[in-house]
Amino acid sequence: MSAVVVTGGTGKTGKTLVRVLRNAGVRARAASRNPAGADPDAIRFDWNDPTTFGPALDGMGGAFLLAPVESVDPLPLVEPFLREARRAGVRRLVLLGSAIVLPNAPSAMELAARVQAQPGGVVLRASGFMQNYLRPHPLARHMHRSGEIRTAAGDGKLGWVDARDIAASAAALLTDLERDARSDYLITGPHGMSYPQAARIITAKTGREIRVRRITEKEQAAAYRASGMPTEFADALAAVERGIEEGREDRVSTAVLELTGRPPRAFAEFVSDHAYEWTQ
Ligand SMILES: NC(=O)c1ccc[n+]([C@@H]2O[C@H](COP(=O)([O-])OP(=O)(O)OC[C@H]3O[C@@H](n4cnc5c(N)ncnc54)[C@H](OP(=O)(O)O)[C@@H]3O)[C@@H](O)[C@H]2O)c1
To answer: Could you say which residues of the chain have pLDDT below 50?
Structure first.
């Protein structure tokens, strides 16, 4: 089996992916700015330092690509990485992309197209992460403090997916590099869910009463900015909620089942697995 480098290897998706790959007997190199000292196969990798790209890709047959986070224009930083991946002979490149295209971030689509043009390039277009309901995400921090979900998305639904299922889907593609694959998968949970529905599930499963407060897109952008997000990114994320409210993001797929052989986790299962988040 070929070795795999996992960028964002210490993040929510990457960390799980590294563990799943290693459990399957695949050598997985965890790449991030702060490699864990205790992990002999961790490597320093920084999107702002292209000299770290070559060593991270050296000897790798597969790569998981987590583009610079909180950027509305990741392409200029990722392009040299794609060139380096071709040079290194990477045979499967899996990009963690998004089902939702941020309104002021056209380069995300361009990035997806560039990855698909690479040898073995696959884009996982992930829906909203269930992990956004866990701290330190601003949604979760506010919910923990006030018992409220603030949203501008009304009753609009999203196909929320557990990041563990995204990692499992990526692992399926990176464990078997010869596996037949499409160049694009929409990765979602089993059904669409609105914020009010999420609040009801959390309340029922944990006993902590969670209410929904409906706010405007402008108020949401201000809240994201106040949580420390860069202005452009905060505005784009808030604008996404309008699309959700209008029903434009209410999509689900069978891709997790297709790739992993297991149906994706439902939100109720996710909440049970993380009940401590609401009871402490
Ligand atoms: N949340 C959602 O609802 C959602 C939905 C769809 C798609 N997505 C996509 O998912 C991605 C985030 O995935 P995640 O939540 O698994 O990640 P995450 O938990 O936010 O972790 C980010 C990872 O990237 C590393 N990192 C940060 N800045 C870096 C830099 N300059 N150079 C190198 N590495 C860097 C971090 O490690 P260090 O800090 O140690 O470097 C960490 O390993 C984003 O691309 C987002 O667009 C999210």
So the answer is: none
- Sheet of 62-65: strand order equals 42-44, 28-32, 4-7, 62-65, 92-98, 121-126, 184-187
Phi and psi torsions of 87, nearest 5°: -60, -40
CATH of domain 4-128+162-187+251-264: 3.40.50.720
Please tell me the predicted confidence (pLDDT) of residue 50. Answer: 97
DSSP 8-class letter at 241:
H
Closest residue by Cα to atom 34, ligand 1, is 32
Q: Is the minimum distance from the CB of 12 to ligand 1 under 6 angstroms?
A: yes
Are 165 and 189 in contact by the 8 Å Cβ rule? The answer is yes
pLDDT in the model for residue 280: 78
Question: Which backbone phi and psi does 116 adopt, to 5 degrees?
Answer: -65, -25
For residue 33, the cross-strand partners are none
Residue 48 CB less than 6 A away from ligand 1: yes
Q: Phi, psi (5° rounding) for residue 222?
A: -65, -40
Could you give the 3-state DSSP secondary structure of residue 121?
strand
φ/ψ of 21, rounded to 5, equals: -65, -45
Q: Answer whether 2 contacts ligand 1 (Cβ < 6 A).
A: no
pLDDT at 279: 86
Q: Does ligand 1 lie within 6 Å of residue 186's CB atom?
A: no
- Tell me the domain boundaries of the chain: 4-128+162-187+251-264
Of all atoms in ligand 1, which is nearest to the CA of residue 74?
Answer: 45
Cα–ligand 1 centroid distance for 137 (angstroms): 12
Helices (H), the chain: 12-23, 53-57, 75-88, 107-116, 138-146, 163-175, 195-206, 217-226, 231-245, 255-260, 267-273, 276-279
